[in-house]
Specification:
- This protein is flat.
- The chain has helices spanning 20-37, 74-84, 111-128, and strands spanning 6-15, 39-55, 58-70, 88-95.
- The protein is an alpha+beta fold and 129 residues long.
- Helix content is 36%, strand content 37%.
- The chain has a 4-stranded antiparallel sheet with strand order 2-3-1-4, with helices on one face.
- The protein has a single domain (6-97), classed as Alpha-Beta Plaits (2-Layer Sandwich).
- The chain starts with 5 loop residues before the first strand and ends with a helix.
- The chain has 3 helices and 4 strands; from the N terminus they run E-H-E-E-H-E-H.
């Protein structure tokens, strides 16, 4: 049986305190790891940005977004390696939902509930008079 391939995206925040070469090394390491175990769709290097709050006493981080397609087991391994790699401040891996898989919009309130709300409003207004 063929394994089901799913689409994922991962954002990685790398520490800038060790210089640009260390950032490039960490980004390259994960890019190579993803290419070896998955189909890498795109890599967006957002560059150095100011963090909203300090992480490990650092105020800036280098942001990278990876979009890839892989088996369901690989994201757990990627997350494990993110967590043990020096220089990684934060990471997040999420499964992408394609537009055809998007959930249906929320069901509107039934007419009976609307009529109860109208009756309650009318009763409160009548009491106020």
């Amino acid at each position: 049986m063929e394994k089901m391939k799913e689409a994922y995206e991962s954002i990685l925040i790398v520490s800038c305190k060790n210089g640009d070469e260390a950032v490039a090394e960490v980004v390259g390491k994960f890019k190579n790891m993803i290419e070896a175990n998955a189909t890498l769709d795109s890599v967006e290097e957002w560059g150095k940005r100011k963090l909203a709050y300090l992480i490990n006493k650092e105020s800036e981080g280098y942001f990278v977004l990876f979009n890839f397609t892989c088996d369901a087991e690989f994201p757990a391994e990627l997350d494990r390696v993110y967590n043990i790699t020096d220089g990684v401040l934060r990471s997040l891996i999420v499964k992408r939902i394609e537009k055809s898989e998007a959930p249906a919009p929320a069901v509107e309130a039934p007419a009976a509930a609307e009529s109860v709300a109208e009756e309650t409003t009318e009763a409160v207004e009548a009491d106020a008079e």
